[in-house]
Specification:
Helix content: 40-55%
Strand content: 5-15%
Structural class: mainly alpha
Number of helices: 7
Shape: flat
Number of strands: 2
């Protein structure tokens, strides 16, 4: 009989993984990295002080400036002003310039041409009627009045309309009242002093 060689045993087949039937497998989303928010600056820097003074000189209120994220809280700013005399003087000068800017802005608003509604004939193109927008005029008037009232409160000596009868603080008003008897006595004393000086001269 012919010799036969033994066949090696078959390797066990790998188990087949079941195919997903139309279901997409997705990986869970990664959790977002929390960004640590930095607080408002509380440390004084010359750059911040320069920007604040510049914006105040343009008529922008301090509290509005301090609403920006890169600006200190308005209470911190007042602490800086209390501790730094140079900064306080700088902001005071900026405020005076800001009052001028606000007054000029009120003048520009008053001089601005109001909105006009023209009724035009479609055939001839002729202007039949001109109607001023009453709502726009009232809004502009309110803008001007608000600025003037604020200026009168912030700088009454320059923009207020109050008549002060008490005189200037540096030169107070003085009222002197002399009676007729006091005037006669003063004249007699003056005459007696003149006679005494003449007698001494002889």
């Amino acid at each position: 009989m012919p010799e036969t060689t033994a066949k090696p045993p078959k390797r066990p087949a790998k188990p087949k993984t079941p195919k997903s039937q139309g279901v997409a497998t997705t990986t869970p989303p990664e959790a977002p990295i929390a960004v640590k928010k930095t607080g408002r600056p509380s440390k004084y820097t010359p750059a911040l002080a320069a920007e604040i003074a510049q914006r105040i000189s343009m008529g922008e209120p301090l509290r509005k400036i301090c609403r920006d994220e890169h600006m200190p809280h308005w209470t911190v700013m007042y602490d800086w002003l209390a501790q730094d005399e140079d900064l306080s003087l700088r902001v005071a000068r900026a405020r005076e310039a800001g009052y001028e800017a606000l007054a000029e802005e009120a003048l520009e608003i008053a001089d601005e041409r109001p909105e006009i509604n023209e009724l035009i004939d479609k055939k001839t193109g002729e202007v039949l009627n001109i109607d001023l927008s009453s709502a726009y005029i009232a809004w502009q008037r309110n803008r001007v009045d608000t600025r003037l009232k604020l200026l009168a409160c912030w700088s009454p000596a320059k923009y207020g309309n109050k008549v002060q009868m008490g005189g200037d603080p540096k030169n107070p008003l003085k009222i002197e009242v002399k009676t007729e008897a006091e005037q006669s006595l003063a004249e007699l004393l003056k005459h007696a002093e003149l006679k005494r000086q003449a007698a001494n001269a002889e």
